[in-house]
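Run log // design_07
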């Protein structure tokens, strides 16, 4: 886990994201992974509050001028009710993208199904309402509530401090999360590394699937041919709500199984099995020593490893 005050990296996973916002007090919302850029798939999950896009960050994707992004236009006079925060810390871009959707879909001006964001996030949003993007980002980075919820899903490791990035880490692939959501009839791209929200033009709830797919396709086309390291997550109303409204038992059972699997997977994410594995290994070694077969066992393992490497 991360040390006090740090933000760990978390996995892009529908179960992780859903549990994270529930821990923050958000009600009636879940995440669904999208395996294809298909407007009909997004529409089938309606109502959809927005999407979270994970991609490999390329340095040449930064805007060539401070006034023009590569797609869309900077909204330098964004509406007051638009929540947009600059990214001021590493590792938190996933949670920041999530909040960029959640905190913009809590009122009837954006959606006919406003999100109940809970007491903690309501207090945070109200407190930062008049802040500029940079100060809002600082407030987010210093929120103990949000950081604690985020770090609850850190990858458990006794060897790696997720809050420290080495020179080698900086040279490797870097991935980034951004949010797309419609606010006041406009599709916005909310990226904390950009100076302003990016407007992609008029967009209502019915037109959101086609509009956002078009924007994403243009973005992906800027990558080298064959690049597939992308992940897309839809932010939707809890699917159990609609299923209860129409009495769809099959969906309710499917969602119950899914939630049970998410709980199990998240429990494993929080666990560190190194000690357990070490004790098992010591027990096996002790047993082989008693049988006088330790050297034979080690040589057999080495031979099997060599055969696998050759294959």
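design_07 sequence
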């Amino acid at each position: 886990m991360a040390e006090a005050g740090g933000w760990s990296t978390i996995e892009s996973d529908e179960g992780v994201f859903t549990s994270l916002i529930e821990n923050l007090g958000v009600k009636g919302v879940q995440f669904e992974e999208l395996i294809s850029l298909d407007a009909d798939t997004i529409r089938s999950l309606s109502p959809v509050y927005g999407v979270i896009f994970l991609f490999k960050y390329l340095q040449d994707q930064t805007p060539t001028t401070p006034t023009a992004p590569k797609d869309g236009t900077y909204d330098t006079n964004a509406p007051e009710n638009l929540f947009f925060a600059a990214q001021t810390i590493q590792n938190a871009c996933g949670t920041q993208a999530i909040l960029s959707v959640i905190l913009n879909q809590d009122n009837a001006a954006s959606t006919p199904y406003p999100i109940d964001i809970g007491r903690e996030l309501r207090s945070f949003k109200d407190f930062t309402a008049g802040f500029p993007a940079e100060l809002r980002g600082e407030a987010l980075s210093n929120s103990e509530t949000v950081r604690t919820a985020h770090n609850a899903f850190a990858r458990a490791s006794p060897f790696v401090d997720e809050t420290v990035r080495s020179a080698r880490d900086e040279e490797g692939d870097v991935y980034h999360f951004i949010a797309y959501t419609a606010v006041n009839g406009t599709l916005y791209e909310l990226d904390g590394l950009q100076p302003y929200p990016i407007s992609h033009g008029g967009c209502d709830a019915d037109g959101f699937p086609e509009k956002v797919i078009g924007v994403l396709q243009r973005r992906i086309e800027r990558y080298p041919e064959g690049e597939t390291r992308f992940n897309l997550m839809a932010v939707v109303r809890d699917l159990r709500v609609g299923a209860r409204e129409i009495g769809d038992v099959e969906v309710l059972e499917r969602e119950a199984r899914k939630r049970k699997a998410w709980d199990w997977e998240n429990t494993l994410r929080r666990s560190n099995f190194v000690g357990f594995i070490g004790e098992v290994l010591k027990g096996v070694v002790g047993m082989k020593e008693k049988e006088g077969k330790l050297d034979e066992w080690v040589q057999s393992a080495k031979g099997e490893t060599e055969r696998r490497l050759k294959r």
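DSSP finds twelve helices and seven strands in the chain.
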